[in-house]
Write a structure and sequence with these properties.
The N and C termini lie far apart (85 Å). The strands form 3 sheets. Strands 1, 2, 3, 4, 5, 6, 7, 8, 9 and 10 form a 10-stranded mixed β-sheet that branches. It is built from 22 helices and 21 strands. Helix 7 runs parallel beside helix 18 and helix 12 packs across helix 20. The radius of gyration is 34 Å and the shape is elongated. A hairpin with a 6-residue loop joins strand 2 and strand 3. Helix content is 48%, strand content 15%.
């Protein structure tokens, strides 16, 4: 077993600006457990487990980009968080565990009441041979129960969750998205193959006389079938080669296209041997499957009838081609319906009230660290930061806090109402925010009752807090809680819990993103009454917030030249990033749906065009006997309507069955949304009728004399 926890560091190199580098602190057996061998140097040993060990392992990427790939770096010091560290090894570029990391430092486990109270360490383990995941889970639950019996104050009702590394890496959201896109791709592939099969059927009808002559000369049906299937597979192979070339190009640009966080850092997208084999197998199988029907239709000919008719037009395979066209429309309806649901989800997310005003706000992470010595403390240092930034022309508000709205939970702390005590193991958890006095004004979060923090809230004054609407709704039944007290655990070590008076209530703010379905409870405490590090800076300005970024950097440099800034974003960008995944899914599925719409239109238009060409003599006779152009037009359109109606009906049934699988990806819209289904059916009907118009008009313009003369 090995432990790992996030531990980013500030890297300082002479002549360069300080840089915040993502990192992890790990126990000494971490690399050996995962079978990672360094490309240079060594990894941690038991000697590095001592307190204050200066050893560090860096990534191959960091080694090459910041140190020029110099092998002499091994054994040399680098400065992290203002402290010298000795580089002992370089991890391979392909290695990433759970999340991005460019350096690893030793993590020394300590024992004590405070340590047992902090549940933050991730553990990775390798199962012994012959031990199943279920056995390990049962054993670990037993161990957790034993610890809880010994230390109920800190471990009662705490247990162990064991997942395979695959489950932990491939999140449900990514799994659902991947399965959805795989299904969509398969549907579009089927539509493309259906179009090709329809074309092969039409081509087979045109080659009827050729096949008859070959058969008359002694060629067996099996030999004809083999030839036609070979042609089909060759056609599929050409398409497969073009597809793989496109796939290779897409994979090369995928990192720049995919939204950040779409794929875990441990997953590298590449066209390896498995993908090549799968693509080759899919190509051959599709070539055979969609070549069998046209080939079989071509060899099932009546030799005498074909030679007697002189190879005149035939309706052979017309029904099958109509079924293929209807199937394409059905698939297109399903994809359009899915695309509509995802687009409506995106629209619902964009209309969500996040509880604050994101416009004209610039944000960034101030990478102070636990190791840096800010005299006489971090709070006065941050006050100087706020004062310097507030002097910038155009700045209307400055605030610092642990975490931004929409950026997800950072710290959760248990609490209870002081006059309604709850057993410690059953205390609810609230999102815990430590902020300065200007935080609410800077982000445009309204105070609904009571007051915001002010200069009277100091370390020596009574402990206070501000809560949000959801906490009031759950624990105060909507009544004004100002003046009531909460018992909450602070971040400061050594203090288990303390009473804080509620001095204000703020509006409900989305914490985990715009798609947050359950409102989070929040407790805000003043920065002067609890300790924190690496705060977010929020600056409200007039006009474009990025326009003041250079001035903000200069102001911060006047306070601390060595403090790196990371995650520089506007609040509008923060809000937009919460919908990048839904937007990505909606864009991809909409693109596939558009392609499906085009294929369906081509399919039904091709079927009717071929039918019109085959029935020219029939139309000529009808018109010679008195039928009007309008009658012929309606005759062709009627067949198109039958094909389109059958396809739309089947597509709606399929969409009702399949869109339920999208439920986990939807927000603000039901899987069986009537408006989406009616719109999808209507759109496909209009497109199908439009595709039928061309062949129908050509049929109506048939010249009886020309049609009969050609016979």
């Amino acid at each position: 077993m090995a432990g790992v926890v996030g531990a980013s560091r500030t890297l300082s190199i002479a002549g360069s600006a300080a840089e915040r580098v993502p990192g992890q602190a790990v126990t000494v057996g971490f690399f050996d457990l995962l079978g990672v061998r360094p490309v240079l140097g060594r990894t941690f040993t038991s000697e590095d487990e001592t307190a204050g060990s200066p050893a560090v392992v860096i990534s191959e990427r960091l080694w090459k980009t910041r140190f020029g790939g110099d092998a002499r770096l091994i054994g040399s010091p680098i400065t992290l968080d203002g402290t010298p560290r000795t580089v002992i090894g370089v991890a391979p570029a392909t290695f990433q565990f759970m999340y991005e990391s460019d350096l690893w430092t030793p993590f020394r486990l300590t024992r004590g009441p405070t340590d047992r109270r902090s549940h933050y360490l991730q553990v990775v383990a390798r199962l012994k041979p012959g031990v199943s995941l279920e056995q390990a889970r049962a054993n670990m639950i037993t161990i957790a129960a034993g610890i809880a019996a010994v230390s109920p104050e800190t471990n009662k009702d705490w247990s162990v969750t064991i997942l395979s590394l695959r489950e932990a890496t491939i999140r449900a959201d990514l799994r659902n998205t991947s399965l959805m896109l795989a299904g969509v791709s398969a549907f579009v592939l089927l539509m493309g193959c259906a179009n090709v099969a329809s074309l092969l059927l039409a081509r087979g009808v045109g080659r009827t006389r050729e096949m008859a002559v070959r058969a008359a000369l002694g060629v067996t049906p099996g030999r004809l079938l083999q030839q036609l299937l070979t042609e089909s597979v060759l056609l599929a192979t050409l398409g497969g080669v073009v597809g793989m070339a496109l796939a290779w190009s897409i994979v090369r640009i995928a990192p720049a296209i995919l939204p950040a966080g779409t794929l875990p850092v441990a997953i590298q997208v590449s066209l390896d041997a498995r993908v090549m084999v799968f693509a080759a197998a899919a190509t051959i199988i599709t070539g055979l499957l969609f070549g069998v029907a046209p080939a079989w239709q071509a060899v099932k000919i009546s030799l005498a009838d074909t030679l007697r008719s002189g190879g005149h037009a035939s309706t052979t395979g017309a029904t099958f081609r109509s079924v293929l066209a209807a199937s394409e429309i059905a698939v297109a309806v399903m994809l359009i319906a899915g695309s509509g649901l995802l687009l409506r989800t995106l629209a619902s997310l964009n209309s969500v009230d996040a509880g604050f005003r994101p416009e004209n706000v610039l944000t960034m992470r101030l990478n102070t660290s636990f190791q840096r010595n800010y005299e006489p403390g971090l709070a006065p240092f941050l006050r100087r930061v706020e004062e310097e930034v507030a002097r910038i022309p155009g700045v209307r508000g400055v605030g610092t806090g642990i975490n931004l709205p929409l950026d997800g939970w950072d710290i959760g702390q248990p609490f209870d109402v002081a006059d309604q005590p709850i057993e410690k193991s059953k205390r609810p958890s609230s999102h815990y925010q430590i902020v300065n006095n200007g935080w609410f004004d800077a982000l445009g979060i309204p105070v609904l009752a009571g007051r915001a923090f002010n200069d009277r809230d100091t370390a020596q004054s009574r402990p206070v807090c501000i809560v949000n609407e959801e906490l009031v709704r759950r624990y105060f039944r909507g009544e004004n809680p100002v003046g009531a007290r909460l018992r909450v655990s602070p971040l400061s070590l050594g203090v288990e819990s303390m009473d804080r008076e509620i001095v204000g209530v703020i509006r409900q703010v989305k914490v985990a993103g715009l798609a947050e379905k359950t409102n989070a409870m929040e407790i805000y405490v003043p920065a002067t009454q609890d300790g924190y590090s690496m705060p977010m800076l929020a600056v409200r300005v007039e006009g474009n917030p990025l326009g003041v970024l250079p001035a903000v950097r200069e102001a911060l440099a006047r306070v601390d030249k060595q403090m790196p800034l990371t995650r520089v974003r506007t609040m509008e960008e923060v809000a937009a990033q919460t919908v990048t995944q839904p937007r990505f899914r909606a864009s991809l599925v909409s693109a596939f749906a558009g392609l499906a719409l085009l294929l369906a239109a081509v399919g039904i238009s091709g079927v009717l065009a071929f039918s019109v060409n085959q029935r020219r003599r029939e139309f000529g006779i009808r018109m010679a006997l008195g039928a009007r152009s309008r009658d012929v037009l309606m005759l062709v359109l009627r067949r198109g309507v039958v094909i389109a109606g059958g396809g739309v009906g089947a597509g709606l049934v399929g969409a009702i069955a399949l869109t339920r699988f999208l439920e986990a990806l939807l927000f603000g819209v039901k899987p069986l949304d009537p408006l989406t289904f009616i719109g999808s059916a209507g759109l496909l009907t209009l497109v199908a009728l439009g595709a039928c118009a061309g062949p129908a008009i050509r049929a109506a313009r048939t010249n009886p004399a020309v049609a009969l003369h050609s016979e």
